[in-house]
Specification:
- There is one protein chain.
- The protein folds into four domains: 150 residues, no CATH class; 270 residues, Ribonuclease Z/Hydroxyacylglutathione hydrolase-like (Metallo-beta-lactamase, Chain A), CATH 3.60.15; 148 residues, Rossmann fold (3-Layer(aba) Sandwich); 100 residues, Ubiquitin-like (UB roll).
- Strand 15, helix 16 and strand 16 form a beta-alpha-beta unit.
- It has 23 helices and 27 strands.
- Helix content is 38%, strand content 21%.
- The chain binds zinc ion (2 copies).
- The site of one zinc ion has 6 residues, from helix 10.
Length: 706
């Protein structure tokens, strides 16, 4: 009974996905296939094609006239017709995808008939609209491009921006952009469980809204390869099969995830380079070179029928990045000149003054530490920070040290980065971690994970002396090249303590500058705002205090306070050139992943886990004679996590007596109501235990028949 109840609740609050009826799953699959087919028409353009070519403008115009019929406008007839009418200069029509992995846009001759009808209707409709009443005329005049639409259509044709995660939190970033019959999704991350989410491995976003609208989804666009942007992709793709667009390294990291979930074959992955643009329905997503603490990070300019939205992804301004790929400031400024409707910008460091230092400064500090150090050096950092790893390898090479990698996630990311050409490792530098004993301490560097004090990661195990390959002692210098993420400070501090206790020398962020952030501070955020000069500003990627601080920065550089929008997860923001309001909400909770279960741990299960963890459990086993319906033999009392039974025999005896007393009453009454006896036993035991111990363990009476 209790379990059934749990299931219901979980469906309600956490959007259970595993227990869906069969028919549903089938229909989902069919839809996904259709979707994938439809998406073959998506094309990639190089940047010169992205700057709102006339043809695209016409297409957008056609869409704006009638979003419902917009899918028929991808047709020669329609395009020629509108082109002649508008007579705008045609700049280009060359569709030469640089990393062609998708077919270019195809004509759809089978829909000609439908288009013709549509066109006739559209013409007659525009005639009708010319005779609109004065009140309606006013609405029409307000926005030139809306001239041919009535107010009802206007309302329907705004761009919707719906964050399903990543706001008022740091983690599980995912944002929906919707216009008419088209949806694109930007990022799909996880967050890590809060302390009270016992046993939960990951927290993924609730994508119920997208499941309901999956036929509209044209693709998943990923800014970069961090977990808070890619971690939920496998769970997403199991529900909604759409193409994934990302840069080379990002896609490589995503692929290793999909391999674990056996999703590589069924997923269409499309590599996009900075400067290229992908057309997805009425959207065009332009990839812009950015800089962050992982290579190949992108900002997006999303060209929509109502204007350009710049989404920064995670960024910092690094004028001297390790790979030399400086952020494309020129393009951002160009977009700013062209007119950016809204800027959605990374708020993580919005409380910090000044600039984030270049990644290169860390390399200099490493070089100083490595030079002349006679100890073995162990560096813990984020596996995904390829540039940091590169600098460690460079310093090792310069000081004639070999490098060994400890930890599976570090090995995985490094092999992807190496294979794709993002890591340059000189011949002979890398050795197997099993061979480290063949080298003296001053000839070795070990790179490992665990810079956040994660209990299962390399560094924590080394600190506890339980690492299978690396035993840490007084001959070791440990560098923790990271800053604790808020909430992890205690764990990191414990690891540092343990390392010092076993004799290691430890260098961490408060001792030396062995880490720089990957996120922009105030001055860099100002630069982004000034380059893009957005009409509306939407601070994203951060807790509310971060969003608020970012808004203050925006105000300081002249953004109108009324045009700054605070979104929350699930908010539906509708916007066009003269309108920007939150008009509703969609489900946007958390779906918890525990082992192989997705969404099957909800509020009630978590409450049970907490109570079990805090109070323990007592199970009372009673035996009933099937013939007489009487309880026979003395009840068995089993307890876990309540008291240590061997030291509390007296209390266990008393518990038994309390139960027996209830059973006597029951046997005298001649009743056979099992639930009644269970309840009575529970109640009297509860009273007894609370009075005796002031504790409230979970009580489970069980009756077995003989
Ligand atoms: Zn990031
Ligand atoms: Zn992030």
């Amino acid at each position: 009974m209790a379990e059934e109840k749990n299931n219901n609740t979980k469906r309600k609050f956490f959007g259970n996905r595993n227990n869906k009826p069969k028919e549903n799953t089938n229909s989902v699959n069919t839809k996904s296939v259709n979707n994938a087919k439809k998406n073959e028409n998506t094309s990639i353009l190089t940047r010169s094609h992205a700057v709102e070519p006339a043809k695209q403008n016409d297409k957008l115009d056609a869409i704006m006239k009638d979003p419902i019929r917009s899918k028929f406008t991808n047709n020669k007839n329609t395009q020629t017709k509108t082109e002649t009418k508008k007579q705008e200069p045609v700049k280009q029509v060359q569709n030469k995808p640089a990393t062609q992995k998708v077919a270019p846009k195809k004509e759809q001759p089978q829909k000609t008939q439908a288009t013709k009808t549509t066109n006739t209707k559209a013409v007659s409709q525009s005639k009708v609209i010319q005779k609109v009443a004065p009140a309606q005329m006013k609405a029409v005049v307000e926005n030139k491009s809306d001239r041919t639409r009535n107010p009802a259509q206007l309302r329907r044709e705004r761009l919707k921006i719906i964050p399903l995660g990543g706001l008022e939190e740091v983690g599980k970033n995912i944002t929906v952009f919707e216009y008419g019959n088209d949806i694109i999704v930007v990022d799909c991350g996880v967050s890590f469980p809060e302390e009270d989410m016992l046993g939960v491995d990951l927290v993924t976003p609730d994508i119920t809204y997208l499941e309901k609208n999956q036929s509209k989804i044209k693709g998943l666009f990923i800014t970069h390869g961090h977990e808070d942007h890619i971690g939920s992709i496998p769970y997403f793709l199991k529900q909604i099969n759409v193409p994934v667009y990302a840069s080379r390294l990002t896609l490589g990291i995503i692929k290793t995830k999909l391999e674990e979930h056996k999703l590589v074959r069924s997923t269409k992955m499309i590599e996009v380079k900075a400067g290229e643009t992908v057309t997805a329905g009425c959207f065009k997503v332009e990839f812009i070179q950015s800089t962050h603490s992982i290579a190949d990070s992108m900002a997006f300019a999303i060209h929509t029928p109502v204007g350009i939205i710049v989404h920064t992804g995670d960024f910092k301004v690094d004028y001297t990045p390790i790979d030399g790929k400086v952020m494309d400031f020129a393009r951002l400024a160009e977009l700013g000149k062209q007119g950016v409707l809204a800027l959605m910008s990374d708020s993580t460091n919005s409380e910090r003054e000044g600039f984030t230092m270049s990644e290169k400064t860390v390399g200099k500090v490493f070089a100083k530490i490595f030079n002349g150090c006679q100890k073995r050096i162990i560096v813990a950092t984020f596996a995904s920070n390829v540039h940091r790893v590169q600098q460690i390898i460079n310093c090792a090479f310069d000081t004639n040290r070999k490098v060994a990698i400890a930890g599976r996630s570090m090995q995985n990311v490094m092999s992807v980065a190496k294979d794709l050409g993002y890591l340059d490792i000189p011949q002979g530098v890398l050795i197997d971690v099993d061979d480290i004993d063949d080298y003296p301490p001053n000839r070795l560097v070990v790179i490992t994970t665990g810079s956040q004090g994660e209990s299962m990661a390399g560094l924590s195990r080394m600190a506890q002396g339980s690492h299978k390959k690396v035993a840490v002692g007084k001959d070791d210098l440990v560098i923790i090249s990271a800053q604790p993420i808020p909430g992890n400070e205690k764990m990191v501090s414990d690891v540092i303590d343990d390392l010092i206790k076993i004799g290691a020398e430890v260098i961490y962020h408060s001792i030396a500058d062995i880490h720089v952030s990957g996120h922009a501070c105030k001055e860099e955020q100002k630069l982004m705002l000034c380059l893009t000069k957005p009409k509306y500003f939407i601070p994203v990627h951060g807790e509310f205090k971060h969003l608020k601080a970012h808004a203050e920065t925006a105000k300081a550089v002249g953004i109108n306070e009324d045009n700054i929008v605070f979104l929350h997860n699930g908010a539906v923001l509708e916007m066009d050139n003269g309108y920007c309001k939150i008009t509703g909400n969609v489900p946007a909770g958390e779906v918890l992943v525990d082992g192989l279960g997705v969404g099957d741990v909800g509020n009630i299960v978590l409450k049970d886990r907490q109570r079990l963890a805090e109070e323990g459990i007592i199970i009372v086993v009673m035996v009933m004679d099937k013939k007489t319906g009487k309880i026979v033999t003395t009840p068995d009392i089993i307890s876990r996590g309540f008291v240590y039974v061997r030291e509390s025999e007296e209390m266990m005896g008393e518990i038994q007596k309390v139960v027996e007393k209830e059973l006597e009453k029951f046997n005298q009454n001649d009743s056979k109501d099992w639930s009644l006896i269970k309840n009575n036993v529970k109640e009297s035991l509860h009273d007894y235990l609370f009075q005796k111990t002031k504790r409230n363990p979970m009580l489970i009476p069980i009756i077995t028949e003989i």
